[in-house]
Amino acid sequence: MEKESNNKTGLRRHHFFSAFNSIPDAMVVTDINRRIISVNSAFVKLFGYKRGEVKGKETSLLYSSEQDFSDAGEARFNPDSDVKAEVYEVLYRRKNGEIFPAESVGSVVKDDDGETIGYLAAIKDLTREKRRSEEISLLTKRLRLVAAIVANEEKDFEAKMKNALKLTTDLLGFEIGIVSRVEGGTYTIHQYYPETADLEVGMQFDLRETYCSITLKADDVVCINEMKTSPHNAHPCYTKFSLESYIGVPLIVDEEAIGTINFSSSKPRKEPLGQADEDMVRLLGQWLSSEFEKQAYQNELKKSRDRFRLISHNTADLVCLHEPDGTYEYVSPSVKKILGYTEDELLGTTPYELFHPDDLQKIQKESHERALKGEQVHHVHYRIKRKDGEYIWFETATEPILNEEGEVANLQTSSREITDRKKLEKLLKDTNKLASVGGWELDIRTQELFFTDEVYRIHELPLRTKLSVEEAINFYAEEDRPAITEAVNYAIQTGEGYDLELTLVTAKGNRKWVRAIGKTQVDEKGEAYKLYGVFQDLSKRKLMEDQLKEKNEKLEQLLKATNDINAIIGHDLKSPLNTIIGFSDLSVKALEEGTFEAEKFKKFLNLIYTSSKGMSTTLDDLLKWSRLQTGDLNLDITSIDIKRVGRHLSDFYQASLSNKELKMEFDFGEHSQIRADESMITTMIRNLISNAIKFSNEKGEITVRLEKSRDDWVLTVQDEGVGMTDEVKRDLFSPLDHPSEYGTKNEKGTGLGLKVTEKLVKLHGGRVEVESEVGKGTRFKLYFPNDLSPE
Fold first, then answer.
1. Average pLDDT estimate for 682-697
2. pTM here?
3. Which of 5, 295, 423, 602 has its CA 20 to 30 Å from the CA of residue 488?
């Protein structure tokens, strides 16, 4: 325990000395006899002593005199002193004997019983501060000298300037004094002395041919005692005007050089110009610069006042100037029309007498107190009483006017009547619930966002929930956020509003269609300060529109299906039907006339059979196509004997195959049972075989193959026919057209078979792929899941 306590004590002592040494001022700790116990690093640096050289020594070696040491002891460093922290100045002596001024903070150190055990002093070197003070004192004397040179009772600035040139020119012993204005590369004489000089006000020179070009480049006082021996002896001014001596300084207004004040002679200086001369000319230049700046400010202020009077006398708004407590100092003439008072009736009074009692606290807190802190206050709404006793609504902006000390000297207000707008806002609020329309408002400067109750209900948010602009925009669906963000930014920048229909995702995750309308309000400078508008729930209307659109699309599908069916009936069914009728008629006549020939009759029957079979296939495709278009065809998943289907189709197409001497092979391998809609599967295979026969050359081969992959059945129908171009392949399943090509024996089709096949395989959750090359044949592949189950 004792070891641990010693460790803690050592640690605390280490922290104390680390902190003691890090203090930037010199620190001295002494015992009750004023002998040095400890000093810090800053002390060593300030006094030049090493710690060992002063430890145990009396602090008298630090003072500049014994008297100072004695006075300090009597005043504060004695056992009876209760000084805790007294600040005083005294002269100290460094190890090298140098005397320096310092600021000291001295205090007495006492133990727990209140007995004095030593003293502590913090010492700060004041050498730099004292030197600066002396410089300021010297500068003040020179400033008084300049003031004496330029001061006179003349109020006219030009007269003061002439007097300054005369006195300074004579004092310095120069021949000519000039105040110039410089713009671009042109040097213009603004004033000069003496009047006998061969100069005129307004006379201009090339700046490069004047010594002022040197002055402006130096950006400070330039002194030339003898140009002949100076580094500037090749300057064009010396060559042209032979001026030997010169002193000048730039005139600076708003950090830009506007000209110079300069003095020159044709003879070199007998007595060189000194630092005092430079300082005097520099101060004179500063005075002239400030006068020019003041003159420019006064001119601008006059223009501003003239503009203010023009605006305030012609504006429909009420423009006022107030004392800090609100008392009217100026009231624009529009007050008569707006409030019914004359200007004189309000001057010297306070608007607090006119404010509605319920709005007093709001005006005080939101406007007056903030303006007195130097803040600009924009657009506070409140009620104010007219002379006839009626209260009207005001919207007021307040701008503090500061004096040179940065204090609020006056308050300028600009107010406009918004009574009609307030009535409309109330009317809008009353109708919000009826129309699912809410209002919103954004203060652009403070970014404060306000929602009416209906807008909160549309968002499915608790009333009065505080939202930032970013949080409000994030309620829009992700795909619509760029549009609303761009619209808001554009409205703020240009003052133009927006009207958008977008998707909103509510706080509860529900998607709604909303209409967002935004308008802007601009201030007297034309800058947008407020964005406001309405927010409407369009979900019901959008639902009705979607339902109507869906019904229209179905009607269009039905109409198109009807037109397609009519076209097929009018052409593709009429042709085989005419064949059947024609050959049936020929057969009947041959029987009646006794000219019947068995071979010819067989040919007629074969044609009638082929046409009937084609009509049957076309009618089946038409029926399925029509039901697909109207969504009236549903899957009936059962277990199918696929080999039986193959045998049936082989028999069905026997005559068509024989007609072209084609060979067709069914390769289902070991697969005999699949799960699918049997009628649809049969139709799909039949349509692909029919297509293969149509485009096969005589004596070709057709293969129908069934394979099983991990997830799908793959049914392939391949021929060795004419093949297809890429363009024909691209339009095979087009929803807009039903392209039909003639077969190798001019067979005509409807173009529906392949589209029906594509729709049917998609109903099974599958797809169709086509591979074809002109002259080499075509391969159709149907993919459909191998795990289909009844719905």
1. 88
2. 0.33
3. 423
